[in-house]
Write a structure and sequence with these properties.
The protein is an alpha/beta fold and about 260 residues long. The chain has 2 domains: about 60 residues, no CATH class; about 190 residues, Vaccinia Virus protein VP39 (Rossmann fold, 3-Layer(aba) Sandwich). It has 10 helices and 11 strands. A 7-stranded mixed β-sheet has the order 5-4-3-6-9-11-10. A two-stranded antiparallel sheet has the order 1-2. Strand 7 and strand 8 form a beta hairpin. The longest helix has 16 residues. The chain is globular, with a radius of gyration of 17 Å. It binds S-adenosylmethionine (SAM). The site of S-adenosylmethionine (SAM) has 19 residues, from helix 4, helix 6 and strand 4.
C-alpha cells in the first residue's frame, strides 16, 4: 500500500506484503530488499527508517530487520511526531506523572525507542517471536539503545513492571492479522484482540490509570470499521490524542496513533 510518485501499484505492494509476512517472515532482509520495501510502502527508500537509521544504511550499520517487522513496524516519520505530541500532552496533564513506558508488542521497538528519547522514561518491552526478539535485541545492542527487552508474552511483562503510577504509558500494537480488511481495521479482532489486552492491563494496574497508545490504519474515506471499533473498545476511556502520520499511502490509507486514558 505504498506510493512512489504514483508509480507503485497497489497489487505490487500487496504482493510484497504477502512475501514479507509469508516466506520472508523471519528472514533478515538485504540492503536492496530494505530499500525496495521503503520505496514500495513509504514512497522512497529512506521512508523505511527505524531508530533514526534509514533503510539504505541499516545493513551497513549492522542492523537486522526481518520481513515481518519491515511490514509491522512504526517508522521514524510517525513515531517522532507521536512522541512529541505525547510529551506536549503530558505537559498539560499535571495529574499524570508516568514512571515508565511498557511496549507490550515490541517488534522493532521503535515506538519505545522514540518515547524513551522524548519522555526520558525507562522502557520495558516484550516480544514473543524468538526471531524478532533476537533481531531487536541485536539492534538495541548495536545502537546502544537502553530498553529492557524480554523474550516474553505481554502478560508476563505486565506481571513484573514497577509499581504503577498514574499516566504510565502502555503501547499496545498487536499483529493485525485478519482484523485488517478492505473496510478498515477491527481492533477487536487483532491477534490477540485489543479488548482482552485492555482487560489484562486493567487487572495488572489495580485501578491506577494509564495511557494506552496504539497505532491504527484508516483505509480511506470509505473506512467503516476502524474508528467505530476503536470507540467500542475504548468506551468509557478518555481520548487524549490522535496523531496522524505526516504522509498517507497512495491508496488513500493513512495510519494514526491514538492515546486513551484508561482506568
Ligand atoms: C505489529 S508488531 C509490533 C510493531 C512495533 N510497534 C514496531 O514498531 O515494530 C507486533 C509484534 O508483537 C509480537 N507479539 C505477538 N503476540 C505477542 C504476545 N502475546 N506477547 C508479546 N509479543 C507478541 C509479534 O511477534 C510482533 O513482533
Amino acid at each position: 500500500m505504498g506510493h512512489d510518485g504514483g508509480a507503485t501499484s497497489l497489487s505490487a505492494a500487496l504482493a510484497l506484503r504477502a512475501e514479507l509476512l509469508g516466506p520472508a517472515r523471519t528472514r533478515v532482509l538485504t540492503e536492496a530488499e530494505l530499500s525496495h520495501a521503503g520505496r514500495v510502502f513509504h514512497g522512497r527508500p529512506e521512508g523505511l527508517s527505524l531508530y533514526g537509521v534509514a533503510a539504505p544504511s541499516m545493513v551497513g550499520r549492522g542492523l537486522r530487520l526481518l520481513g515481518r517487522t519491515a511490514i509491522e513496524c512504526s517508522v521514524d516519520d510517525h513515531c517522532a511526531p507521536f512522541a512529541e505530541a505525547l510529551a506536549e500532552c503530558l505537559a498539560h496533564e499535571p495529574d499524570l506523572t508516568p514512571g515508565y513506558v511498557a511496549d507490550l508488542f515490541c517488534g522493532s521497538g521503535n515506538v519505545g525507542f522514540h518515547l524513551r528519547a522524548r519522555l526520558g522514561l525507562p522502557v520495558f518491552a516484550a516480544e514473543l517471536d524468538p526471531a524478532v526478539h533476537a533481531a531487536t535485541r541485536h539492534n538495541f545492542r548495536v545502537l546502544g539503545i537502553d530498553v529492557d527487552l524480554r523474550h516474553a508474552d505481554y502478560r508476563e511483562l505486565l506481571a513484573c513492571l514497577p509499581p504503577p503510577r498514574p499516566g504510565d504509558v502502555v503501547v499496545v500494537e498487536p499483529p493485525w492479522g485478519a482484523a485488517l480488511t478492505p473496510s478498515g481495521l477491527d481492533v477487536a479482532a487483532t491477534e490477540p484482540p485489543v479488548p482482552g489486552i485492555l482487560a489484562d492491563i486493567r487487572a495488572a494496574r489495580a485501578g491506577v490509570p494509564c495511557l494506552v497508545a496504539l497505532q491504527v490504519i484508516v483505509v480511506g474515506a470509505d473506512d467503516t470499521t476502524t474508528r467505530p471499533s476503536l470507540r467500542r473498545c475504548f468506551a468509557g476511556a478518555r481520548h487524549l490524542l490522535a496523531v496522524p502520520a505526516p504522509a498517507s499511502f497512495a491508496t488513500g490509507a493513512t495510519v494514526e496513533f491514538h492515546v486513551y486514558a484508561v482506568s
